[in-house]
Recover the amino acids of this structure.
């Protein structure tokens, strides 16, 4: 989705859940795929995510892998220790074991690929094992200046495209990983790639790079941040009616800018350009091409890296006004969320946001999901599916994908929120770390069952909840942020983001009075365009006007209390204490028998301990280390009772299992039965 842009004032003045008719425990595997690794391709064995695609014959499987239109059958599997000596076997497919078995889209099992002729290709995304500074260990891919694609990213192993006929019976296809994905030379000027380099400066565009001390400390490796300020001062005239304010995106911008295509110089429009520089940030991260520009327990202190490290560096290089009123946040979609979140968390740093069609501002509606009150993220109580993507054709709403379809499609590209796709990055940003070190997901990605306890932990990123719960007190946001929040969305937003905006407006209005936040909802507008659907020229003048009005000599200067350091939120220390490894460990508890000793035949009670949401439990009593009775299923939070029929040392053993978690048995302390 679109990036946020920071404007700095210059000093001079189809619905359905895929099901498989061949679950994995069915040993009748018809279609098998064997993939080996060519000699010399890998220096050492690797872990990773294998993605196998079946596309229409004579087509490039990568041409269309989208959830809304994909003609492909896509299968994924986590693989470990892959080397020349060890071929990968794929067969079957199941929705129960997405982290170890084959999982496919739109059908779970390989056995569901209809007979016919296909272009077949496989990819292996390589993971690196990283120990973060909070002690958590994850296997992730670090993107390489390549836009963090969900498949075929830089350094992936690839096979040739093979044309195969699937016969519909017992059959084995063979493929060979024989190449690595190279980074595409973008415009010949790129120094970048995995070393996180930059483009060459041009007359109008300066590229800035720093090594972030905070991010490098968190990830235990060098992490660089980039910014691409475009110096508007040197362009004399802006077109009156150029299109969307969709720049600078990471790569192609420099050429477009220099060739005059963005924006086309229009001398007839002859109006002086507002004096400001535009800054966009490149902040690709493990989990996504964009860190959401805030501090999070799963991605690290990206907010601090951008706001404290990079912006202060930029302000040393350029002659900008170093005051909140002259720092304006703007953006659409992901950038819409980033721009508003940064003003809300950092009233001490930024003056105002113009946030367009932002990602969900209030989790009463996460897109169209009623996250706080529904039992299931995919299906409503009336049986209908929760939609995710829509468009309007001739005024009629057409649903292109459901939340279930998108999440299942994401699962083929990665488990444990590692697909580099939209729902997974939300899990990583809004969620804390799970006890398995990966994002604590708010619902079961296969079934959609919502875990209220995990959702509760999202609340610091529910922006209306954050504002209303810090309305007064030390942050005093009701007063500090008044007049500084501008939001725009259309009623036909493709991702239902208007709903979160409406919830945000409702809840902030309830405490601040109608219009506390300036919210514009334009009828029949879809996802895209500038703030309030303005022409770029009008938009920049609006921003310029806001800066002038809120300057110390303006009509309504920002007060010192509105920008006081005490207004600051999303502090890294709090974020990692609340959501990092130690917090995940502290959430756990062992089973415990509620007695010091017990008579033979008398009843004891025990708790099953505390586990992460979604862990299913099986308990068993043991006396003197030997099973005493059969294992039985038990719910989290339950109290179990038992009357031991034998003397000895009594224990309760509870085994917890969850997808992407190591299955673990926890023992209560021993209680003497006499
Ligand atoms: C998982 O697979 C089973 C067996 O094929 C099927 O009955 C069930 O509906 C599937 N569940 C989901 C959520 O796809
Ligand atoms: C490939 O697909 C095209 C279009 O569907 C079809 O006309 C053609 O016969 C196919 N070729 C093979 C070898 O299956
Ligand atoms: C495979 O998925 C397609 C598209 O969702 C569906 O129409 C078809 O019935 C599925 N086939 C099987 C065997 O599940
Ligand atoms: C697949 O292609 C072969 C020719 O390569 C052709 O004989 C066969 O009919 C095709 N199968 C289908 C299902 O189109
Ligand atoms: C390997 O892939 C690159 C593109 O990433 C391509 O240019 C090259 O020709 C491929 N080499 C082989 C042997 O297929
Ligand atoms: C240039 O600006 C004028 C005046 O606003 C407008 O009428 C004209 O369409 C613009 N031309 C281009 C190429 O943008
Ligand atoms: C919209 O309606 C017009 C006239 O009825 C029709 O020609 C056109 O194909 C329709 N467009 C879409 C996208 O359905
Ligand atoms: C909201 O802001 C826009 C842009 O500055 C302005 O045109 C509009 O009047 C404002 N709405 C209210 C209710 O203040």
């Amino acid at each position: 989705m679109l990036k946020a842009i920071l404007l700095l004032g210059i000093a001079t003045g189809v619905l359905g859940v895929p099901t498989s008719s061949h679950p994995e425990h069915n040993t009748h595997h018809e279609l098998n795929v064997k993939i080996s690794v060519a000699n010399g391709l890998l220096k050492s064995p690797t872990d990773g995510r294998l993605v196998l695609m079946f596309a229409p014959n004579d087509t490039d499987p990568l041409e269309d892998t989208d959830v809304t239109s994909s003609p492909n059958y896509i299968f994924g599997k986590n693989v470990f220790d892959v080397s020349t000596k060890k071929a990968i076997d794929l067969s079957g497919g199941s929705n129960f074991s997405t982290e170890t078995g084959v999982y496919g889209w739109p059908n779970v099992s390989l056995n569901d690929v209809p007979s016919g002729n296909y272009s077949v290709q496989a990819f292996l995304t390589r993971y690196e094992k990283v120990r973060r500074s909070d002690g958590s260990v994850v296997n992730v891919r670090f993107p390489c200046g390549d836009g963090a694609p969900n498949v075929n990213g830089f350094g992936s192993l690839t096979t040739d495209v093979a044309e195969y006929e699937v016969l519909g019976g017992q059959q084995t296809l063979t493929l060979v990983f024989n190449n690595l994905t190279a980074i595409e030379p973008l415009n010949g000027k790129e120094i970048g790639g995995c070393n996180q380099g930059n483009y060459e400066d041009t007359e109008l565009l300066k590229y800035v790079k720093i090594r972030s001390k905070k991010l490098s400390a968190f990830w235990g490796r060098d992490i660089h941040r980039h910014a691409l300020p475009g110096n508007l001062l040197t362009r004399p005239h802006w077109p009156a009616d150029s299109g969307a304010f969709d720049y600078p995106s990471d790569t192609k911008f420099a050429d477009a800018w220099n060739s005059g295509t963005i924006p086309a110089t229009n001398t007839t429009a002859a109006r002086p350009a507002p004096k400001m520089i535009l800054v966009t940030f490149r902040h690709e991260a493990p989990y996504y091409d964009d860190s959401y520009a805030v501090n999070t327990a799963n991605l690290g202190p990206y907010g601090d890296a951008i706001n404290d490290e990079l912006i202060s560096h930029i302000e040393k290089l350029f002659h900008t006004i170093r005051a909140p009123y002259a720092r304006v946040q703007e953006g659409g979609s992901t950038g819409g969320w980033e721009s508003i979140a940064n003003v809300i968390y950092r009233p001490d740093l930024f003056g105002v946001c113009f946030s367009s069609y932002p990602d969900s501002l209030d989790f009463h509606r996460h897109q169209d999901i009623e996250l706080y009150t529904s039992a299931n993220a995919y299906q409503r109580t009336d049986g209908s599916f929760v939609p995710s993507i829509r468009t309007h054709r001739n005024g009629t709403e057409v649903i292109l994908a459901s939340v279930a379809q998108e999440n299942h499609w994401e699962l083929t590209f990665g488990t444990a929120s590692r697909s580099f796709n939209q729902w997974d990055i939300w899990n990583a940003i809004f969620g804390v770390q799970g006890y398995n070190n990966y994002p604590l997901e708010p619902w079961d990605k296969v079934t959609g069952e919502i875990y209220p306890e995990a959702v509760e932990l999202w609340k610091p990123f529910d922006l209306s909840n954050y504002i209303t719960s810090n309305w007064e007190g030390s942050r005093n946001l009701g007063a500090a942020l008044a007049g500084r929040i501008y939001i725009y969305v259309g009623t036909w937003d493709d991702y239902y983001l208007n709903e979160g905006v409406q919830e945000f407006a409702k809840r902030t209005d309830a405490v601040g009075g109608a219009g506390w936040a300036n919210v514009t909802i334009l009828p029949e507008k879809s996802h895209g365009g500038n703030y309030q659907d303005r022409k770029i020229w009008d938009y920049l003048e609006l921003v310029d006007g806001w800066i002038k009005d809120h300057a110390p000599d303006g009509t309504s200067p920002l007060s010192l209390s509105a920008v006081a350091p005490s207004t600051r939120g999303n502090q890294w220390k709090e974020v990692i204490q609340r959501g990092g490894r130690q917090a995940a460990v502290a959430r756990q508890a062992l089973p415990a028998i509620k007695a010091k000793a017990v008579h033979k035949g008398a009843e004891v009670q025990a708790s099953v301990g505390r586990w992460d949401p979604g862990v299913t439990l099986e308990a068993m009593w043991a006396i003197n280390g030997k099973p005493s009775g059969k294992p039985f299923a038990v719910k989290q939070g339950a109290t179990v009772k038992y009357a031991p029929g034998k003397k000895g040392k009594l224990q309760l053993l509870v085994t917890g299992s969850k997808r992407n978690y190591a299955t673990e048995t926890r023992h209560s302390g021993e209680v003497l039965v006499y």
Remarks:
- The pocket of 2-acetamido-2-deoxy-beta-D-glucopyranose (ligand 1) is lined by residues 17, 19-20, 23, 95, 446-447 (CB under 6 Å).
